[in-house]
Predict the structure.
Amino acid sequence: MKILVFCCDWCSYPGADLAGILRLEYPSEVRIIKVMCSGRVDLMLVLDALRQGIDGVMVTGCHPGECHYVHGNMEAERRIELLRSIFERSGINPRRVRIEWISASEGEKFAEVTRAFKQEIDEIGPINQGEIDAAEIIHDVFSSERARLVLGASRRAIELEGVDPLWYKGVLERTVREEVLRERILRELRKTGALSAHELAERIGEPAKEIFWNLIAMKRRQIILDIGIVDDSLKFAIQEGV
Amino acid sequence: MSRDEIKIGVYVCHCGINIEATVDTARVAEFASHLPGVVVARDYKYMCSDPGQELIREDMRELGVNRVVVASCSPRMHEPTYRAVLAETGGNEYCFEMANIREQCSWVHKNREEGTKKAMDLVEGAVARAYLLEPLEPREVDVIPACLVIGGGVSGIYAALGVAEKGFKTYLVEKTPSIGGHMAQLDKTFPTLDCSACILTPKMVDAARHPNIELMTYSEVMDVSGYVGNFNVTIRKKPRYIDIDLCTGCGLCGEACILSGKIPNEFDMKKGKRGAAYVPFPQAVPLKYTIDPENCIFLKKGKCGKSPACQEACPRDAIDFTQREEIVEIEVGSIIIATGYDLFDPSTEPQYGYGLPNVITGLEFERLINASGPTGGKVLLENGEYPKKVVLIQCVGSREIGGRTYCSRFCCMYTAKHAHLIEEKIEGAEVTVLYTDVRAFGKGFEEFYNRVRSEGINYIWRDLYAPIEVTQNGDGLKVKAEGVGPIELDADMVVLATAAVPSRDAKEIGSVLKIPESPDGFFMESHPKLKPIDTASDGIFLAGCCQSPKDIPDSVAQACGAASRAAISLFRGKVPIEVISSQINEEICSGCRMCEEICAYGALSFDEEKGLMTVNEVLCKGCGSCASTCPSGAITMKHYKDAQIFAQIEAVV
């Protein structure tokens, strides 16, 4: 089993040090990666870990209101929350990622949360191929511009322009889900050549109607093209050079 | 540096047996020697020792090692040590990485096989990262040659004098109307029995008159931003409703106030009374009156008789009810926190009987026995008589199981002093001390304790974890406890040696300054032994009881130390600043401005002409939130590049 813990330079890393100073045992599967701030933890880093087969990823940072960099931890929380809700619908157990606040004086808490996380991962078992494949797809989604733009604009929208946070969260989740679906469509097309909305729906397991609208949107962006009606249905293929 | 020039040296430390006991360091070094880029891997007893450091220097000179990985303790402990080795030997200090195989491995795992395996993984991660690290150039900024001291007790006063004496402007901010702190409330000081006010008040005056010290009493620090060398501090000066330039401290307003002698005086632990216009004590510095807005009838109701009596009485027209709070901004290079302590409230633990007549705390006792206190130095019962049987109870609220587990450190000695003073001042009084362990650790303490015991004071051992009960018994009190056998004592006065607890305002100051607290709630020092004065934040230092309970000599010593530490950067005139900053790839940046609001420091701004973002590297603190937000991947964080982190993740598991 492999567990990755991101620690920030100011609170949770010294918190982990304190666990050591106090000789508090925690699972040896835990591997710590130090970053300056939990806000540095790009979702790509988390997803990269999962697609490598790491069974659980925990992001840790300063308590709310105590971030050394003011609000980096809140950005981290926003991202992890989004990831968990995306995972729920993508076949990845959302319990594989979590976020925890650990201050420099909470050595005991560091040991506790890592023990609890290990136990949780024990319960849900090692990451399976389906989850790894799904992580790969979501990784690609978060390396493309659209999902990152909508996620990146969260703070501006919610905290500075007063957009309803729940509504924005909905938009964000919808956008990412859509991007995940499009990524899956692309993968199927790449594999098979040309497919219709119904054929794609069967392979992907999502409603044909939703797939069709996404095909249209992708066609408009010239990512794919329709190659006309073959065997009574409209088929789509990847645009050359994409 | 092209990849084939990369020569990594790996050094695995035994840390005596701290690491070696759980990690086979020789095997880890052997493993590391086969990793990509590694030209030499060694294990050694103490890498941080001189010969250990010399190993690195030698390999840099002889083998051309240009990247160093040390697998030992936390980088928070020795990263600066090794970085200095690289810099001195002609390398770049940022081409260095530590694998924390002590705090994260040998100290938290018991199985040697598991520990060794994990240590290998951690070293592999560090090597993978070191392979991709890039040399960075250290940067410096100018230091504002001024210091802020928060808290005007004995620690704050000595800290401020210490910095001011070195020639730097010092702001001494105190939340109450006068400096002096708890020490000003004390009568005699142990073990020498010299009068507290007599030794403190001259220092209070020195601080007030020092040309380099700007005293800001009745003021609070609201906000601090910036970094070592360049802190911006926002201070709220509360209105005194008295023009301190005009006030001479004559006291006519205090006498005239129609509430004179009616409001419990906090300085006297509410055993004495004051008016709404008041000075907390006669030797207050500055000796300027303050009108207490919570009690003043005029301030509360807008009317006080025909016209306020204080205003009528003041011969210099100093009273000004139109005063408003003032927000002052100052800039300093370093900060000393000296916010002191508060006393545990014994009424939260009813077994001690606090609230019954003649059950008082040690600090209340100090006010009673003080010649300038409310009773003129007479320790009297509430009925006006002298007590005949006094029981002093130690460790009230300290050394608990769970909760306040710590020792408050100064109560043993002040209890001995109280016993001595009662014996001296009240003829025939019978004094009993209920103690658990007498901790007489300081200079002259043991001698003082022996002297007090020989004066006929009855010291009885009590079991701290057995029940204790202080109850009313007719006109007097009864104390029941357990020691060698059951203890039952009649008393007419009980004095509680209450625990020192973190100052009520400490949490707020801590969050403003971003200083973490230890589990006991006191501010956490940077290292418990080697950096007892520094905090985790550069340029912010601790003095006195805000760090842990201390007696006066220890507080003064730490304050003088803090003054020296705080003056270092002021003397140097320059401080190194964060090298880790973000960088924008202009080829990729789309100018979407997504990073602009993510940055808490305004380090990223939009260049209208180019239509791109630009970074102000002095403002950038290197958190990296912008890099993880950038939709197009145009931002890279120096020293924490995506590739560097990816490589470490891949290698570490």
Chain B has 18 helices and 34 strands. Chain B touches chain A through 58 residues (CB under 8 Å).
